[in-house]
């Protein structure tokens, strides 16, 4: 069957290499996946003062996560962690207390960086946050993509055959993971 995958790009930069990676992942994905980007750029900085009267941007963001069968995080590493904007977005989705939008929502984590460890530290930190948010995560395969100039074109064409095969397999595995999780934890309503 078809699965709706909401993807979050951790970077707000116009020339984001992680956006290029997301475009590449969409190209090599199983046909059962249907993708939509979940943007967080318009969210204010979260505080629990908003909980009593959640603003429309906050509600729309939560709904976009809840309407997805699975979420895929494609994120850079900033100062050995995830970008602040992405953390802010996750905080918005996790609240108000008792309405955590990530609960039981299957997720995957991937990212690219020009550095040799390819966002590994940021991904570990993101996994820790998603664990607390009770999101079942695909543990393996992991994907730490070192971005070299020209590896992926802006619209997502992968120029290296080995990388293309690796990313195709990553998305095939993610499909199997999502299918398995939704078999035991079907989406509510
Ligand atoms: C970086 N960069 C970076 N790279 C990395 O591998 N580990 C790191 O900790 C950091 N830290 C960092 C902090 C800040 C504030 C910036 C702006 C950049 C470099 C980063 O990988 C590079 O800018 C990528 O292009 C970021 O991905 P996007 O934003 O282009 O998708």
How would you characterize this protein structure?
The protein has 189 residues and is α/β, with parallel strands linked by helices. Helix content is 37%, strand content 14%. The protein is built from five helices and five strands; from the N terminus they run E-H-E-H-E-H-E-H-E-H. The protein has helices at residues 17-27, 56-66, 84-94, 120-132, 161-184, and strands at 3-9, 33-37, 70-74, 107-113, 144-146. Helix 2 (56-66) packs across helix 3 (84-94). Ligand FNR binds at residues 11, 13, 16-18, 76-80, 113-115. The site of ligand FNR has 13 residues, from helix 1.
The tally of helices reads 5
Shape: globular
Rg from C-alpha positions? 16 Å
For the biggest β-sheet, the strand order reads 2-1-3-4-5
Bound molecules: ligand FNR
The ordered string of helix (H) and strand (E) elements is EHEHEHEHEH
Q: Percent helix among the residues?
A: 25-40%
Straight-line N-to-C gap = 17 Å
| Average pLDDT over all residues | 97
Low-confidence stretches: none
How much of the polypeptide forms β-strand, as a percent range? 5-15%
Largest sheet: 5 strands, parallel
- Secondary-structure-derived class: alpha/beta
| Count of DSSP strands | 5
Write the layout of secondary structure elements.
Layout: E1 3-9, H1 17-27, E2 33-37, H2 56-66, E3 70-74, H3 84-94, E4 107-113, H4 120-132, E5 144-146, H5 161-184
Parallel strand pairs: 1-2, 1-3, 3-4, 4-5
Descriptive keywords:
single chain; 189 residues; alpha/beta; 5 helices; 5 strands; 37% helix; globular; binds ligand FNR; flavoprotein; Chromate reductase
């Amino acid at each position: 069957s078809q699965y709706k995958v909401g993807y979050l790009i951790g970077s707000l930069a116009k020339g984001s290499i992680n956006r290029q990676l997301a475009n590449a992942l969409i190209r090599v994905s199983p046909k059962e996946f249907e993708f939509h980007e979940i943007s967080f750029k318009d969210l204010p900085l979260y505080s629990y003062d908003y909980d009593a009267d959640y603003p429309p941007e906050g509600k729309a963001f939560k709904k976009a996560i809840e309407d997805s069968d699975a979420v895929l995080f494609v994120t850079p590493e900033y100062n050995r962690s995830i970008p602040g904007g992405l953390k802010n977005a996750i905080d918005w989705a996790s609240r108000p207390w008792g309405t955590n939008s990530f609960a039981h929502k299957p997720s995957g984590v991937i990212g690219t960086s020009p550095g040799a460890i390819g966002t590994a530290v940021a991904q570990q930190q993101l996994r820790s946050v998603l664990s607390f948010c009770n999101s079942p995560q695909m543990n393996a395969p992991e994907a730490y993509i070192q971005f070299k100039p020209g590896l992926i074109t802006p619209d997502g064409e992968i120029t290296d055959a080995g990388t293309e095969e690796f990313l195709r397999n990553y998305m095939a595995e993610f499909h199997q993971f999502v299918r398995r999780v939704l078999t035991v934890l079907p989406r509510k309503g």
